[in-house]
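INTERNAL AUDIT FORM
Audit reference: QA-55
Scope: verify that the stored structure record matches its stored sequence.
Auditor: D.O.
Record contents follow.
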Amino acid sequence: MPTLPETGLAFRIMTPKTRALWVLAGLGAALCLTGVAGVLLMPRLMLREQRSPYNLLQTVQRITTNAVTQGWTVSSVVPLDESIRKHGGGQVRPVRLVNLCQAHHAATILNEDKARIVSVMMPCTIAVYEKADGKVYVGTMNAGLLGRMFGGVVAAIMGGPVAREQRQFVGFCSP
């Protein structure tokens, strides 16, 4: 049996069927590894968490002030922990959902029929919450990555001005 001179390994000539099976097995393994990597990395890529140097109410106030300064409307600030308690869910640490909308960005997306499904994520929500360590954190979606996943007008708006402005709303936080 001939050997490869640089490795000394036995070299066999594979049949086309064997070669095809090896290629398919390799592709299958690559797809599985990519899927596992995606499942493990996606939450860290899609959601961002930053620590706020302020208390809960001050953090909400800073975000809402920054958003209004950038031309956004504060639709509501929902005390999620209070709603959970009121509806029998028990006591949870403080959580505020800051719901924001920028009418021009929303209209640009919603004027395109193919993009209207994105309305399920409107208004944009920023979460402000306290963890067991007593510190306050800000949670946001990665608008840029989300936009790129959809493409088209959603990518142009979410990946451009929305992502840029969202970073400015929470720019006072530490990663």
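Auditor finding: record pair retrieved intact. Residues 76 and 99 are 5 Å apart (CA to CA).
Action required: none
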